[in-house]
Amino acid sequence: MCAAKNGVAAREIERKYELTAKTAWFMLHRIREAMKRDPLAGLLSGAVQADETWIGGEPKNRHRNDPRELTRAPGTSDKTPVFSLVHYETREVRSRVVPDVTGETLLPALAEQAELKRTWLQTDGGSGYRSVAPHVADHATVDHSAGVYVGPGAVGTNLAEGYFSQLKRSIDGTHHHVSVAHLPRYLAQFDFLYSNCRRTDSARMRTLIDHTAGRRLTYKPLTSN
After folding, report:
1. C-alpha to C-alpha distance for 159 and 161, rounded to whole angstroms
2. For labeling, which of 67, 94, 119, 192 is most exposed (least CB within 10 Å)?
């Protein structure tokens, strides 16, 4: 788990260690729980790149009579939005699932992880960041629609987009499907791997072991809403 950049499938653990599928799946989730960021970690400041992506299958690949397609309004998507911050210098990434990417949602999500008045925020031209800009120390954008991806002073969102590229490759190629209920734990896993990518496998494992105290996760079936 600490060395596999693309993640490890529960089915692989099931075969390798001769476990039941449920045991392998639960064990990996316990490790992901330990990979969550320390709750006492400080707020980000300085140059921070912010971007959002959507996780889920492409609606165009579904059958026309799929119930999700029958109830989905035209021009909308039922993919799950994910909002991520990447510190430019340390390469630490912090991600979370959000209900939408409006300014009303992005501002409190940003305030939970960054010291607004000491943050130089770098984003694309998304409309949701317009209401965020007045609350940070400085805000710079790149206009992707005009073919601009790096602005003056190395402004951009390339770090965040690189993280999203790795995240999606891992989910699609290794796990194939991740439910909305468990997505935050997968984000914790790939945040941990990306944030510690400059360290050795052994160092990442020691950091993970240090995080296990108090990270108890009990097995229970999900209840429907």
Report:
1. 5
2. 67
Which structural domains are found in the chain, ordered by start? 42-199 (3.30.420.10)
Q: What is the pLDDT of residue 62?
A: 63
The region, left, alpha or beta by phi > 0 then psi within -120 to 50, assigned to residue 121 is beta
Flag whether pLDDT at 224 surpasses 60.
no
Residue position matching structure tokens 């097995």: 219
Phi, then psi, of 221 in degrees rounded to 5: -70, 145
Among candidates 98, 158, 165, which has minimal Cα distance to 132? Answer: 98
pLDDT tens digits, one per residue of 62-85: 656 666 655 555 555 678 999 999
**What pLDDT does residue 60 have?**
66
- Phi/psi of residue 88, nearest 5 degrees: -65, -40
**What string of DSSP letters covers 65-129?**
T-HHHHHSPTT---PEEEEEEEETTT--EEEEE-S--SHHHHHHHHHHHEEEEEEEEEEES-GGG
Are residues 62 and 68 in contact, defined by beta-carbon separation less than 8 angstroms? yes
The amino acid at 104? E
Residue 84 has a pLDDT of 98
* Euclidean distance between CA atoms 52 and 63, whole angstroms: 27
